[in-house]
Structure formats: C-alpha cells, structure tokens
Amino acid sequence: MPAINRRRLIVAAGALAASPAFAQTAGPQPARPRVRIETDKGVIVVELATDKAPITAGNFLRYVDSRRMDGAIFYRTVHAPGAPTVGFLQAHITDGAKLYPPITHEPTTTTGLKHLEGALSAPRFAPGTAQSEFTILSSDAPHMDANPAAPGDNLGYAVFGQVVEGMDVVRAIMVLPADGPADNPVMQGQILTTPVRIITARRG
C-alpha cells in the first residue's frame, strides 16, 4: 500500500469486525456499544471496543452521551499519492469549551487492535494528549500501530472502534475537494473545502 503522509495530528483506526482483534472469545461477552453518526453526507455506524480500549472508547462515548459530538466536523482527508480512497479522514470538535481533559494513551501493543480499514483511532501529539478528535481509516495503515522497534515514542495511535455500516459514506467524504486553508504547510491539500458536519451522534 502506498505510504500515507504523516502530519501533526495523524490518526485513525480500528480493526475489522472479522479480524482476530475484534473476534469474540469463548464464553458470553458483553455487547459492544454502537454509535450512529449522522452527517450531512450520510450515516456512519461504529462499534466501540470498550473491552479492548476502555479508556479511549469510553472517552468517545462521553462526548456522544453529553451530545458534545453534535456539530463536530470532518475537516481533513489524507490520501496516499494518486490513490484518493487510500488513507483516512479526521473529525474534531471546533468549540474548545466542549473539550474534556486529555486521556491516557492505549497503544495497540496493549489492546491488540490494529489500524485496519474502517478502524477508528485517536489523534494525538505526545502520548496522553488525545481529546475529542478521531480518525476513520479508509484503508489498512499498519504504520500507525505501535512499534517498539521504531524511532520516536513508537507508541503509535489508539484504535478504539470499527465502522460496521457506512463505509460508502466514508469513501464519499474521502474524495471531496480539499483545497481549504491549512495552518500547517504539511496539511496543504488535506483540508476539506467544505467540512462535513456531524448532525448527531447517538448510541444505538
């Protein structure tokens, strides 16, 4: 797969429901909560890995249950060169007053989850700085997983869920025009000309 540009708040992620990370283990398991994200481009339904990444998934649910995710926007798309549907899209809450404190980082080496197509992941700067932002992957991105052999903090990003319905909406957003103004030159060509609004995000 073509390499994806890393930028200041890269992220996104999750594992496919059929992958080992999301497979049911022996014995009865509690149902994973689902969230219906209604956007002005369609509906995306996600399943949250509260069993594998309780801090990160719980943080997302906190924003959903308090309705602070309503009105957030998908504002950024990152593509592999020449491959408009390979990469990820990113959302954030624009009102800083709605943000909760940063959360503890849950690396993929701890959770066992992977950055696969449809995964939700938590953008961050240093480990432990993630707040409301989340990314949805439109393709596998193993370079986002924690890798103890890699340089830097090598803890990757925290996968906490998976799209179970609406990947067509994700891909439709991925190919929207992205010539909006970028604060960081690295993000030039990645900012959606017209952000996609999250109308509501509700459990169920």
From TrEMBL:
A molecular function GO annotation: peptidyl-prolyl cis-trans isomerase activity
Isomerase listed as a keyword: yes
SUPFAM superfamilies: Cyclophilin-like
Record bears the keyword Signal: yes
Keyword terms, alphabetized: Isomerase, Rotamase, Signal
E.C. designation(s): 5.2.1.8
Domain PPIase cyclophilin-type: from-to ranges: 42-196
Signal sequence extent: 1-23
InterPro entries: Cyclophilin-like_dom_sf (IPR029000), Cyclophilin-type_PPIase_dom (IPR002130), E_coli_cyclophilin_A-like (IPR044665), TAT_signal (IPR006311)
Residue ranges of coiled coil: none
EC category: isomerase
Domain of life: Bacteria
Protein name: peptidylprolyl isomerase
Organismal lineage: Bacteria, Pseudomonadati, Pseudomonadota, Alphaproteobacteria, Caulobacterales
